[in-house]
Design brief:
Blueprint (H helix, E strand, L loop, with lengths): L4 E5 L4 H13 L3 E6 L14 E5 L5 H7 L5 E4 L17 H21 L3 E5 L11 H13 L6 E7 L2 E2 L6 H10 L3 E3 L5 E2 L2 E2 H13 L7 E4 L5 E2 H12 L5 E3 L2 H11 L9 H6 L21 H24 L3
Parallel strand pairs: 1-2, 1-4, 2-3, 4-5, 5-6, 6-11, 7-10, 8-13
Antiparallel strand pairs: 9-12
Helix pairs in contact: 1-6, 3-4, 5-7, 5-10, 7-10
Length: about 325
């Protein structure tokens, strides 16, 4: 089924920008992208079928205003960190707002406006019994997404997503540029990284095939790695590999505690808790999505080399006193 007007919430971020670009390139749909700040979405304006709107999607009145003429909704909003909730809380207030309350509001708005198609971003390992607030909140978000049987919902569970401008491999490459040693909590945790272009393709394919309604799809790449291996590859591809030292649980927790209180919040104890569960798919990517998963080795060397190239350029400028 062709959708004339698609609302993409979270469409200006790393994954969202790829989804919007693929929709603009491969469909005739008009795409609406709400954003709180114009600067974050202006890169989308080069696409003639894309329109950005300044709006706070957590405000139900503002959210309702976005639904005028909309045929389908894609929700890509996700965060990695949250303050802790009160004692006994399954997840903190920030996860509650972004991962649970927002999909509830979206589904309710779909109901009010007669929108019958909803695509929802979750995460691999989401579980109400998960070891982290993040995974538990993602499970609650899935329940909210499927709450109304009148709405044709599809849920996606990606592993860690890589690609140019990712905050995962790029972060580890940048750290190895600065430090001679990489002490690493959760070094043996397993991941199955998926290319951002494949994730975007999955969302577009779901919109084109109604048979995906009511289903949950795991999105993962062709190969499983430990976190240690991924950090090592980031160092190699960026041109400054460093020794990686796995930390025992007590030191890993201390490291995460320290990092969660620093600007940029590279790691938290909740992130470390998430890594108690292997972030790998139960099987190959679903055939109906029509995707051949892209290998990390085919993509990451190209964009991570940019870190190394920038380092060389900086050195040349210093040498030329520029």
């Amino acid at each position: 089924m062709a959708y004339k007007n698609i609302l993409v919430i979270g469409g200006s971020g790393f994954i969202g920008s790829q989804v919007v670009a693929q929709l603009a390139r491969t469909t005739a749909s008009r795409v609406v992208v709400p954003t709180r700040r114009y600067e974050r979405s202006k890169h989308l304006l080069v696409m003639p079928t894309v329109r950005t709107v300044i709006a706070d999607v957590h405000d139900e009145t503002a959210l309702d205003a976005l639904f005028d003429g909309i045929d389908a909704v894609v929700n890509l909003v996700g965060i990695l960190h949250s303050r802790s909730g009160p004692g006994g809380s399954a997840y903190g207030p920030d996860f509650l707002q972004a991962h649970v309350d927002l999909p509830r509001k979206i589904v309710a708005a779909c109901k009010r406006h007669g929108v019958r198609r909803y695509l929802h971003m979750s995460a691999l390992g989401a579980s109400a019994q998960g070891p982290s607030m993040y995974l538990r909140s993602k499970a609650a978000g899935e329940a909210a997404a499927f709450a109304d049987s009148d709405i044709a919902t599809t849920v996606f569970r990606p592993s860690v997503v890589f690609g140019e401008a990712d905050r995962f491999l790029n972060m580890f490459a940048a750290l190895q540029k600065r430090f001679p040693l990489m002490p690493l909590g959760g070094a043996d945790a397993k991941f199955q990284p998926v290319y951002v272009g494949d994730v975007a393709q999955a969302f577009v394919a779901a919109l084109q095939h109604e048979s995906t309604s009511g289903k949950t799809y795991e999105l993962a790449g062709p190969k499983i790695y430990t976190l240690r291996q991924l950090v090592q590859l980031a160092g190699i591809y960026s041109g400054h590999p460093r020794p990686v030292v796995g930390l025992p649980p007590a030191l890993a927790s201390l490291q995460a505690f320290c990092l969660e209180h620093l600007p940029g919040r590279m790691m938290s104890r909740d992130n470390l808790a998430s890594m108690q569960v292997d972030n790998i798919a139960g099987g190959p990517m679903a055939a109906e999505l029509g995707i051949t998963p892209t290998a990390l080795e085919a993509i990451a060397p190209r964009y991570l080399a940019g870190v190394h190239m920038q380092q060389q350029m900086d050195a040349h400028r210093r040498g030329a006193r520029r």
